[in-house]
Structure formats: C-alpha cells, structure tokens
Design brief:
The chain has one domain: Vaccinia Virus protein VP39 (Rossmann fold). Helix content is 39%, strand content 20%. The protein contains eight helices and seven strands; from the N terminus they run αααβαβαββαβααββ. The chain has a seven-stranded mixed sheet, sandwiched between helices. Bound molecules: S-adenosylmethionine (SAM). The site of S-adenosylmethionine has 21 residues, from helix 2, helix 3, helix 4 and strand 4.
C-alpha cells in the first residue's frame, strides 16, 4: 500500500465492496498503524464505558470488531462470551488471534443481520459508525438483536452524528419506545496523533 493516511483512505471508500477490500488489505498492519501513528484509544475508552453498565457474565456482540482491539480489552476486564462481527474477513482473521472471541461472523451493518432477535445481552461498537462506514440505519438491527434491558454502547464521529442521521435516528428510536438514551459523551479526540481535528462521541442506549 502506498504510504498515505490510511484512516482517510478507508473513509474515502466509495461503497462497502471497496471498504471491505481496503480493510482486508490493511488488516495485518491496522493495530500498529492506529495505535503507534494515530494514538488511537477508542477501544479502551469504549470498554471502560461498557463495563459501567454491563456485567462480565453478559453475552456480548462486538459489531465492527475489526482486529479485536475492543475484545482484547473486554477480555482483560473479565468478559468471557463475546462474538465478533465485521464486514471484513481479513479483519476477523486478525481478531481470531486475540483469543477474546467465541464466534466470528462476516455481516454488514445497514443490512439485516443473521442473528435471531434478542440474541445478545448487550452490544458494543467502536469506530464502526463513521464516514463511509456503517450507516445510522445499522442501529435498528443492533436494537433488534440486543435483549430488552440490555445496552448498546457505540462511538460515532461527532460530525457524522449530526450530518448523517444519527441524531435523527436516536430521536426516532426514542419516540418509538425502542430505546432510552442513558449517556452521551462530549466530542473528544480518539486519534490524537494522526487526526487531531477528528472528534468522536460515545453513546449508551438501553433497549426497551
Ligand atoms: C476503524 S475499524 C474499528 C475496529 C475496532 N472496533 C476498533 O475499534 O479497533 C472499523 C471496522 O468496522 C468495519 N465496518 C465498516 N463498515 C461496516 C459495516 N457496514 N458493517 C460491519 N462492519 C463494518 C470495518 O471492516 C472495520 O473492521
């Protein structure tokens, strides 16, 4: 791969096929790149929020698990039942090496997920709802596959939250009585070294 900002490179994918191909290509170097070059700490931050709401005995879905950085932190915290789901098989192959997950599913947020309704106690999704990535409509399926009373903890780029329908999706889900919004963080920099201008927010939804 030519040396370029790989975060921008995946943001610029024109469709899911191109996005999948780019993540497949990036998978082996992803961890070193995002941690060393960008100072990425989204997985730690997301898992810290998650453990405030969800017991370690929970059956957890990691949606957009990537190489398993989130699962690795959750495993350290004592979570023992985590399923990794992602668009990219290349990323899921890396996630297998963490030993944090009990299942691996190649599925696409924005499409119908191949899980039964209420399959998981709670769901986490970090770095996956972003520019050119999973759309706001993907939240519908996370709500469906998470049990009533369970939590969805997810991050979203702050600009994408407003401009790409996430704020409206929250309002829709709340007025339909499907979720309550339990917490939302202020915008913060999760990629402080390589992308200091990009801000993200974390949201905690409780499924009704
Ligand atoms: C920036 S990475 C984040 C991975 C991991 N959660 C982390 O924090 O390191 C985004 C991940 O979302 C996946 N992804 C992007 N769009 C997706 C979609 N529509 N459905 C499922 N996975 C998607 C990508 O394949 C990639 O593994």
């Amino acid at each position: 791969m030519a040396q370029q900002n790989k975060v921008q490179w995946v943001y610029e994918a024109k469709d899911n096929d191109e996005l999948e191909a780019r993540y497949d290509e990036w998978a082996a170097e992803y961890d070193a790149d995002v941690i060393d070059e960008f100072g990425y700490f989204g997985p730690q931050r997301g898992a810290d929020i998650f453990e405030r709401f969800v017991p370690t005995s929970a059956r957890v879905l990691d949606a957009g698990a990537g190489t398993g950085l989130v699962g690795a932190v959750l495993k350290e915290k004592g979570y023992g039942s985590i399923t990794a789901m992602d668009l990219s098989n290349g990323m899921l192959e890396e996630a297998k090496k963490t030993g944090a997950y009990e299942g691996f599913d190649r599925m696409v947020l924005g499409e119908t997920l191949g899980y039964e309704t209420a399959s998981f106690d709670s769901t986490i999704s970090i770095g996956t709802f972003s520019l050119g990535h999973a759309p706001a409509s993907g939240l519908n399926e996370l709500v469906r596959v998470t049990k009533p009373g369970g939590y969805i903890v997810y991050s979203v780029r702050a600009d994408v939250y407003v401009e790409n329908g996430f704020q409206a999706k929250h309002e829709e889900l709340v007025s339909a009585g499907k979720v309550t919004i339990v917490d939302g963080t202020e915008p913060e920099h999760l990629l402080p070294k390589g992308e200091p201008e990009l801000e993200h927010r974390f949201w905690v939804l409780r499924v009704s």
